[in-house]
What does this fold into?
Amino acid sequence: MQSPAPRRVTMSEVARLAGVSPMTVSYTYNRPERVSGESRAKVLEAAAVLGYPGPDPSARSLRYGATRTLGVVMGEHLTYAFDDGQAVAFLAGVAEVCAERGYGLLIVPTGTGEEDPGRVVAAAVDAYVVWTTTADDPVLDAACSTQRPVVVHGGPDRPGTTLVTIDNRAAARAVALEVWTGAGRPVVLSLPVDRRRESFLRPGLDPDTVAYPVTRDRLAGFRDAAGNLGLHWSRLPVGVCHTNDEADAQAVMARLRESASDLDAVAAMSDRLALGALRSGGAPLRVSGWDDSALAREHDLTTVAQSMRAQGASCAAAALGDAPTVDHRDAWHVVRRGSTGGGAGTR
It folds into this structure.
């Protein structure tokens, strides 16, 4: 049997503790320009004490019983949803399920600062799909505080939420074995490791210090491959990029070449980063990417193939109440192409 949902704190209780009227509480959240700074501070302090997340947007649609809208929290600048090919494919999968069921789709813009949690809580949606983030992300806390269903893509695997992801560690080990076998000086070109998104070089970067679950698992898989090949992970250079961008990858590759001039094989965590490595100049490299995007096919990149559209559809279906019917953990494969010296193929 499921335990009953926790009782939701009311606006009247917040008003009573803050010593203001319920209307002042309402204005604090919905029309803050009509509330003095002193009153607003009292309301927010009382709300924090009581664990009040703000007005329930679904109350605006009580006569319908629901908003019939699904919220997607990208954790990136809003343009990322339209510029990044994998984000576009993921959202297409979400949209497909929403269209089939007569639901609207709301992309909740976050990644801009302290207002993010409030923006998530205030979204008039029935459930959330959260793009991969960190366990300490306040945006994830905010989504969970609403007591609406939350599905997380990629991680973290948080109690009370549903996780949809592939086995990134196994996939990383497989693709690294493909690109590093026979290499003398392999390196890693990594996605950001935490929400600060700093760029740096570090030999033998410890996966356990990485906040993003997807990056952490891929690093662990690369480390597994290094061990299988008799390579010393502690000496293997890892270049961390602050964005998933070709130009950033080229800049990091320049720094990697300064520290390891004889590098000859690059395992990159995305096709964009891999393309940056291919275009970074210097001696020819063996390079692998990730996602099997149009870029990978155009530039003959060995890569990890996965269906972001299918994962997006599974996230949406789970958020709207379906029991999981597809386990995506093994839904990946390595595509061999010319960038690692072999012909086209899969394994």
Notes: The chain has a mean pLDDT of 91. The two ends are 43 Å apart (CA to CA). Residues 168-306 form a domain with the Rossmann fold fold (CATH 3.40.50.2300).
